[in-house]
């Protein structure tokens, strides 16, 4: 019989936190989704599948700048991005500037399973989703309920993500976003870019949120992995270092991460980050500040 290890899960609802706004609804929802993820891991579901299920719930909620809660870009289109990665196989799937589909993360997973490519964008991503029979959005104006609140930043953002450690000791990460508020047509941030906003290997899994242009320039998620693998840093020290690099470039945001030993991290340099942590002990924590 295969060895059963402790499990862990971390999820985030984005680093787009505004002072004096109540996040009671978001925190209640994050706790509910964390409970669901905890149960799925206890049932033996893989880290990859748990991450997808969790992110689908976050996309569906309309409470975060991802999925249903996304905002239109400058030409009125809802262009969504998502990515996922499985640590022990290094398999990955990613979509960017996807228009017209309910769950970008599910499209990314179907890509990972069925075709050899890692990333599809724009019309190519939509054509693939249609071929695969993924759930379409027929009336965008009535479906989307933008959750974004402008916060004065030049790059105002929101993202959702999940990282998980399963009973087999395998890791995975998933990230989904509607992108920056009032973004230019065709803009792509870090979320769908493997190594920038999403990463998983045999040691750690990372999902990022924040001002994506800076996370891209820092290759932030992969930087955490490199600090652990080559520098011998602990997961927490590696995340602090990678976020520090993003901050030195002029950006802010946060990261969630989990390691194969069950270590969990949720850190941010922004004003806050909506998040939930399921520790290996089973204890669940939620927070914003």
Topology of this protein?
Layout: E1 8-14, H1 24-42, H2 47-61, E2 80-86, E3 92-98, H3 104-114, E4 119-121, H4 122-131, H5 140-143, E5 160-165, E6 171-177, E7 198-200, E8 204-210, H6 212-218, H7 220-229, H8 235-249, E9 253-259, E10 264-268, E11 274-278, E12 284-287
Parallel strand pairs: 3-4
Antiparallel strand pairs: 1-5, 1-11, 2-3, 2-6, 5-6, 7-8, 8-9, 9-10, 11-12
What are its keywords?
single chain; 289 residues; alpha+beta; eight-stranded mixed β-sheet; four-stranded antiparallel β-sheet
Task: Please give a structural write-up.
With 289 residues, the chain is α+β, with helices and mostly antiparallel strands. The protein has one domain: (Glycosyl)asparaginase (Glutamine Phosphoribosylpyrophosphate, subunit 1, domain 1), CATH 3.60.20.30. Helices cover 31% and strands 24% of the residues. The chain is built from eight helices and twelve strands. It has helices spanning 24-42, 47-61, 104-114, 122-131, 140-143, 212-218, 220-229, 235-249; strands at 8-14, 80-86, 92-98, 119-121, 160-165, 171-177, 198-200, 204-210, 253-259, 264-268, 274-278, 284-287. An eight-stranded mixed beta sheet has the order 4-3-2-6-5-1-11-12. Strands 7-8-9-10 form a four-stranded antiparallel beta sheet, covered by helices on one side. Strand 7 (198-200) and strand 8 (204-210) form a beta hairpin. Helix 2 (47-61) runs antiparallel to helix 3 and helix 7 (220-229) runs antiparallel to helix 8. The termini are far apart. The mean pLDDT is 95.
């Amino acid at each position: 019989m295969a060895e059963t290890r402790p499990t862990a899960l971390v999820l985030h609802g984005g680093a787009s936190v505004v002072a004096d706004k109540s996040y009671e609804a978001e925190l209640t929802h994050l706790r509910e989704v964390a409970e669901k993820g905890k149960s799925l891991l206890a049932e033996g579901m893989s880290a990859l599948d748990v991450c997808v299920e969790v992110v689908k719930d976050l996309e569906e909620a309309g409470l975060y700048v991802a999925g249903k809660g996304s905002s239109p870009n400058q030409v009125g289109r809802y262009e969504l991005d998502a990515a996922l990665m499985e640590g022990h196989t290094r398999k990955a799937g990613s979509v960017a500037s996807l228009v017209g589909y309910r769950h970008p993360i599910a499209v990314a997973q179907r890509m990972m399973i069925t075709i050899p490519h890692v990333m599809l964008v724009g019309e190519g991503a939509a054509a693939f989703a249609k071929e695969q029979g993924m759930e379409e959005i027929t009336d965008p104006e009535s479906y989307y309920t933008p959750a974004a609140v402008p916060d004065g930043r030049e790059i105002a953002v929101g993202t959702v993500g999940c990282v998980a450690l399963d009973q087999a000791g395998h890791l995975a990460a998933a990230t989904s976003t509607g992108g920056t508020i009032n973004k230019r047509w065709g803009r792509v941030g870090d979320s769908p870019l493997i190594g920038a906003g999403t990463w998983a290997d045999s040691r750690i899994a990372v999902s990022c949120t924040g001002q994506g242009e800076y996370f891209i320039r820092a290759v932030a998620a992969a930087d955490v992995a490199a600090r652990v693998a080559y520098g011998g840093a602990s997961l927490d020290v590696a995340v602090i270092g990678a976020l520090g690099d993003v901050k030195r470039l002029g950006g802010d945001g946060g990261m969630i991460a989990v390691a194969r030993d069950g270590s969990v991290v949720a850190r941010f340099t922004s004003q806050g980050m909506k998040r939930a942590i399921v520790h290996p002990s089973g204890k669940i924590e939620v927070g914003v500040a």
